[in-house]
Amino acid sequence: MKEKEIDLRLIKKIKALASVPERDPRVAEKGRARYQLEVDKAFVRSLEAVSERNDRRPKGWILNEKKNLIQRKGLTKMAKVILSIFLALTAMFTATSVSLVAAQSSQPDEALYPVKTWTEDVRMDMASNDPQTMLDLALEFADRRISEIAGMAAEGKAAPDAVLDRWQLDITFAYQALVQMQGEDFGPALARVEATLCTQQETMNQVNSSTSTEALLTRSRAMIEEHLRLMTGSGEGEAQVQTQLQQQVQEQLQTSQPEDAGNPDEGALNGQGPNTEMDVEYGKPEDWTQGPQEDEDHVQWCYTFMNQMGYDVNSGTASPGTDMGQGMGTGTGSDTGSGLGAEYWLMYCQALLTPQPANTPGAGSGNGSGGRP
Amino acid sequence: MSLKENALLRGARRLDRDALAVIYEQYSPEIYRYAFRLLGDGQVSEDCMAETFSRFLKVISMGEGPHEHLRAYLYRIAHNWITDSYRRSPPPDLELNEDVLSTGKQHLEIDVEMNLEQARVRSAMRALTPDQRQVVTLRYLQGFSHEEIATSMEKEVGAIKALQHRALDALKRMLLSEEQEK
């Protein structure tokens, strides 16, 4: 066989590799979402790097300006008073801003952590009418929770259970946002949630567990796995997935109703007896998830609420014999399927009524009725 | 390289999200095809492509990486990933790919034969040196010119032609030995 003919046959054989099967559109979408997530993270990192430098510049300028103005002889008394008030307000504002900024990098075992969770609650609350922003925030906050758990585990410390509970809450918010999305937005958003969960799964798998962290890490991995199964396991169309997510969110909300969480008769097990006032005021299921009224005494509300839920305020533990009490008492309310709203308000009331260290995330999550949900 | 490519790269270096999105849309399909042709596995090829863009992003966000020849740079990352992948995993057996059997196409016999032929060629390509493999793939499967390959591999055009010559000789011995004996 001639050399040229051999070359042609060889190249034809090589070109057998030119045929490539079509990519699975869902996998391709997932890959795109994952890349987008990495781009967003890189972008945020670049902004953070810039904002730190900027923080220093204006502070120096203000101090220099203050020195120059105070030393100037031409200022009247009134001007000095106004200037003092202005500087005091500026200092307060700067101190608050610095605290808020510093809190963003705090860990669950640090004093500023409640500030961090409080700011997250406020931001989430403000985004509740915009599904896209709500999804962005929910995924960002869920990422933070996983980083916190992994970061503490890397130091051999187990994060408080409430951190994992908040992660569960953030994922539920992401589902709520997905349910509200329409048409073309849903597919990419779903892929984004899935990609986020995959990244979080990888993060958790890379953490080496120790005796103190093993239980929390195992539970975290199982919960991520469970959500991933919901995303990928159905193998159905987007409409069906959206319906499933809607059911999932509704189930979580429904299980937070007082009927499921413990009826007034169950309260009798705790020696409290049925609370007729609560039956009147909070008889409707949705009342539980709305929390206390604006003009209502939160402490009183919490006493009534926790008694109704079968939670012993005095001992700081869950009362036996109540479904909800068992869920919260072990700190595993989220993964045992207990309700989203009731669980949140239980955390809030627990923080409000039970003396506990200021650095627990549960305390931070309930700073005011304007927080989540 | 084109002005558009360099403009995209400048945008990417500023972490412009639109530029980064366009880069992904424009180059990810061909990087996937490049990976699949050498690896023969959809999932592994997806991993290769994802890692290629992840490494690219990491490098430019640190202010490093290329100032031109973006496409060539992406191919170089993918090539390195594939070379590492070959080192990590043993060569696959020459067996039928499940993808073909599950597609339910009418011409199943043709598909099976094509699949076997691809596996043979892939196996032979794997036996080449990494440089030879890259030259053959870029030249005959991705349609690069000698100059473009030289840019991508940061070598002289003459060196690329020599690599191509040696690679084809080796592939002839592996794939056409029966024909040559006739």
The percent range for strand residues of chain B is under 5%
Q: What is the general shape of chain A?
A: extended
Number of helices of chain A: 17
> What is the chain-wise order of helices and strands of chain B?
HHHHHHHHHH
Whole-number radius of gyration of chain A?
A: 27 Å
What is the global morphology of chain B? globular
Oligomer: heterodimer
Instruction: Extract low-pLDDT stretches of chain B.
Output: none
Strand proportion of chain A: under 5%
Mean pLDDT of chain B: 84
Please state how the strands of the largest beta sheet of chain A are arranged side by side: 1-2
Give the helix level of chain A as a range of percent.
Answer: 55-70%
Q: Termini separation of chain B (Å)?
A: 46 Å
Topology pattern of chain A, helix = H, strand = E: HHHHHHHHHHHHHHEEHHH
**Structural class based on helices, strands and sheet pairing of chain A:** mainly alpha
Gyration radius of chain B (Cα, Å) is: 18 Å
Q: Please report the total strand number of chain A as a whole number.
A: 2
What is the averaged pLDDT score of chain A? 69
Helix and strand content put the structural class of chain B at mainly alpha
Largest interface: A-B, 30 and 41 residues
Topology:
The complex is a heterodimer of chains A (373) and B (182).
Chain A: H1 3-14, H2 25-71, H3 77-103, H4 113-126, H5 131-154, H6 161-180, H7 186-206, H8 214-232, H9 238-254, H10 258-261, H11 264-269, H12 276-281, H13 285-290, H14 298-308, E1 311-312, E2 317-318, H15 323-329, H16 340-353, H17 361-365
Antiparallel strand pairs in A: 1-2
Chain B: H1 3-13, H2 17-39, H3 42-61, H4 70-88, H5 98-102, H6 108-126, H7 130-141, H8 146-153, H9 157-175, H10 177-181
Task: Write a structural description.
- The complex is a heterodimer of chains A (373) and B (182).
- By secondary structure, chain A is an all-alpha fold.
- Chain A has 17 helices and 2 strands.
- A two-stranded antiparallel ribbon of chain A has the order 1-2.
- In chain A, α2 packs across α7, α5 (131-154) runs parallel beside α7 (186-206) and α14 packs across α16 (340-353).
- In chain A, 34% of the residues are buried.
- The N and C termini of chain B lie far apart (46 Å).
- Chain B is mainly alpha-helical and 182 residues long.
- In chain B, 77% of the residues lie in helices and 0% in strands.
- In chain B, α1 (3-13) packs across α2, α2 packs antiparallel against α3 (42-61) and α3 (42-61) crosses α4 (70-88).
- At the A-B interface, α1 and α2 of A face α2, α3, α6, α7 and α9 of B.
